[in-house]
Amino acid sequence: MINPYLWVLSLGHLVVDLGQGILPILMPFLAQSLHLSYFQVGTVVLAFTFSSAIIQPIFGVFSDRYSMPWLMPLGLFLSGFGLALTGMVNSYELLLVAVLLSGIGVAGYHPEGSKVAHFASEDSKAGSSMAVFSVGGNLGFGLGPMFAMFLLGFAGLDSIEGLMIPGALTALIFIFLLPRFKKILAQKSHPQKRGIEQTPIAGNGKRTGSLIRLILYITVRSWIHSGLVYFIPFYFPSFKGIAEPEYLVSTFLIAGVVGTLLGGPFADRFGGRNGLVISMIISLLTVYPFLHFNGTWIPIFAFITGASIISTFSVTVVFGQRLLPNNVGLASGLMLGFGVGMGSIGVTLLGVIADNFGLPLTMNLISLLPVLGIILAFTLPDVRARGSVSQQGKPLEQGV
After folding, report:
1. Residue 198: what pLDDT?
2. Which pLDDT belongs to residue 192?
């Protein structure tokens, strides 16, 4: 049975990740209001990516060293408050401060939230439990644009103050539950207290190598996912004659929610490495048809592609936590924050390729990236919880 507190943590994940879907919608309004150049727009996006994603491992290190469940309600409040400030500022410099503040809130929530989710779950159901936590973030990303347009419909940027409401309300819920979260951390933050025997992992060097390959896998996945999300609106109108490709982006993102819910249980049953391999194989078989087929096949392949790519979102978090059992916060920050950051860098590099060689070539390149993901997945160890059972009914040891 899934711990009910995981649903609360998933709700917090949803609220804190709304900003990732909201900011792209706000930027045209902010650029017009503050007379921003394209370079300044890019700098604002980079500031949010840096503060919300790239510095997450730093919060993870502090999360491992100190028990800081209070970061969750604080992060929830700051994530919404910073975005709300973007509608009130009157200069580019203050806009950067507001975006950085929101990003810090996002970065503060993720490592601590995923750590509590890790300790609140049964080890044999870690994939399913982390899928519950992760699906909130995917939903937040997908619902962000709709929520932004809803608020902007009232009075434009003057109604953006409403962005602080979800974060503030959810922060109050987390403040009320802080004693329970502290108890979970106190009881289960050590393997001995959890009653789980940890199998030693063979050598720190081998473990580090596995972690690096896992991060490279996440990088490839993020490049595919972010590249499609950002370039679908440009590619399909110009080369496929689809005037309103927004529905394809929504289909792609919503499918990610379904993929997350399926990927966690699959990894619990068949192993995380197998989940990573299957995800990339399906992506390899579907991205190219999605880009080149016509008619009703396009949304069908958009859904399958979105589900397959994001099906490993929770799986990689659990994988990283098992590779770093004594640094769960750091592992969570690397898996969650680093992935988003690498996605942004990937979009930038793919954009350079598109500028110089054309968008069709860039999209075809994205369709081939799963090959690299498959190779990386096969090099990873089959890390599972004790008590996991193979298809032949034999227990699987955890090891690298």
Report:
1. 44
2. 40
Neighbours of 348 (CB within 10 A): 14
Q: For the chain, what are the domain ranges?
A: 1-197, 203-383
Residue carrying structure tokens 């369709």: 367
CA angle (11, 15, 18) in 5-degree steps: 135
Say how far apart CA 159 and CA 300 lie, in whole Å.
Answer: 37
Q: Do the domains spanning 1-197 and 203-383 agree at the CATH topology level? A: yes
* Ramachandran category for residue 382: left, alpha or beta (phi over 0 → left; psi -120 to 50 → alpha): beta
CATH superfamily of the domain spanning 203-383: MFS general substrate transporter like domains (1.20.1250.20)
pLDDT at 216: 93
CA angle 166, 167, 170 (to 5 degrees): 80
Burial call 177-199: b when 16+ CB within 10 Å, e when fewer: beeebeebbeebbeeeeeebeeb
Give the C-alpha distances (Å, rounded to integers) separating 141 from 17, 22, 106.
Answer: 6, 8, 12
- Are 278 and 284 contacting, i.e. CB atoms less than 8 angstroms apart? no
Cα–Cα distance measured from residue 60 to residue 112, given in angstroms and rounded to the nearest whole number: 7
Q: What is the biggest distance separating any 2 CA atoms in the chain, rounded to whole angstroms?
A: 65
How many alpha carbons fall within 13 Å on the CB side of residue 297?
A: 10
| Distance, CA of 207 to CA of 331 (rounded, Å) | 12
Q: How far apart are CA 236 and CA 290, in angstroms?
A: 10
Residue whose structure tokens are 């005037």: 243
Q: Which fold does the domain 1-197 belong to in CATH? A: Growth Hormone; Chain: A; (1.20.1250)
Which pLDDT does position 130 carry in this prediction? 78
**Whether the predicted model's global pTM rises above the 0.85 cut:** no
| pLDDT < 70 regions, the chain | 1-2, 38, 123-127, 188-205, 383-400
